[in-house]
Design goal:
Shape of chain A: elongated
Largest interface: A-B, 37 and 47 residues
Structural class of chain A: alpha+beta
Strand order of the largest sheet of chain B: 1-2-3
Shape of chain B: globular
Oligomer: heterodimer
Number of strands of chain A: 6
Chain lengths: 161, 361
Amino acid sequence: MRERTVTPRPKARAEGVVVRALGEEVLAYDLETHRAVCLNGAAAEVWRLCDGRRTPEEMRRELEKTARGALPEEFVWLALEQLGRERLLEAPAELPAALAGLSRREMLRRVGLAAGLALPAVASIVAPTPADAASCVPSGGPCADSAQCCQGSTCIGDTCT
Amino acid sequence: MADARADSAVVLIASALEGAWRREPPPPALSEERLARVAPLLSGSGASALAWWKLRRSSLCETREALEFKQSYRLQALKDAVREREVESLFALLDAAGVEAVLVKGWAAARAYPEPGLRPAGDIDLCVRPAQFVKAKDVLASPEGRRFWVDLHEGFATLLDGRAEELFGRSRVLPLGASRVRVLAEEDHLRLLCFHLLRHGAWRPLWLCDVAAAIESRAEDFDWRRLLGADVKRERWVVCAAGLAARLLGARLEGTPLAPAARSLPRWLLRGVSKQWETPFAACQPPLSHRAPMRKYLRRPRGILGDLRKRWPNPISATVDVCGPFNALPRLPFQLACGLSRTAAFLARVNAESRRAPHFL
């Protein structure tokens, strides 16, 4: 019996994700994993089109209108693969059989050669965070007396509990 | 000698943050090498997003340090979006319980910047009327309330002078998503930012940016008389905080009633800030800088001298603590008075606790 292929219609995850646009980039913060990622303009465009109704092929055609040129199929899939990996889609979109065997490098090469434009990229945001200069010490922090602890905590020993 | 001065932490930080709170900051007066030297001070004190904002259109924008600042800027923009949601939910929760709260510092201060994410926020500072304090505490102790990191204040006594009712009466309500967030009147909030900066010894450069941003983003009908208040000593505190922002970070005071008096700042104040900005990190400030709680030394006094040295109050916060004047006189008497008053408060606390639980020591 022949297996039926279902064309994916990727849908952007909306629950548990905080999004902020900064110029062309779109930043997303996963409230569950506390991971922050940055989508470049191309990846952000693909993500915007992930409405659960469009197929990757329809997304590609939509993107071609703004790119004013032909885009290879891999362009959309490259973005979808990264968006799925970063849990920005409700369900990861499975690569079609023709592309499934390609390494990421190979896919990048094919997209780069054909598209001649910025490749979709989703990158983690990693930055040193300073100790928060809070006016009260949160639970678990050091203290000398309860007045230094945040509301709801008491200084027991030398720790806000 | 001149080189040493130019490379001091305060000069480097000031060069990196001068006018950084403006939509179009002036270009940075920094070499790549000096930027590399100041970068850890900016990152460690929470000013890296602001530093990126200032560097973003300069020749330094592709340096390794600038790109790290850019990452912080992105991360902070996201954290700000998360924080906004929290503030929105928190106010909805308090509102449902009939608690009227005023949000100070944090989100309220960030509104003066061109992008709210430029100013990182720690906890959420809330002030409630003394009569609603217990109710507010209960709301925050509930399962829904416990997820917020709130510093709850009973009235404004620890932050600002003036009667709570008057401050509430002048406060404004701003829309945030589906909620309404109450913040202080502009004048009261700037006064609070000045007091907060000085009470904590002005160790964090970002707080001085807050003062500068609030001054420059003021409304046309800003009431300078209300900002300065009726008390001469505190008026001078405000003037000195604004003067510091002008002297170190280039805040524009021209045409304001603050300008003439802000030109003459006490030397000890500038020295005090210079010293603080050598290590502008929360870990170097009390209580995180303390080795152990004082009560521990009552049982085992070993190491107390070293810790007492760490607890010696800095001249700026000591003066504010004892409500002293910001004049040209030496600060030692104020530091002594502050140390004594803290010791007395500590002993009183120990006494009270030992009566309640005789074996607590």
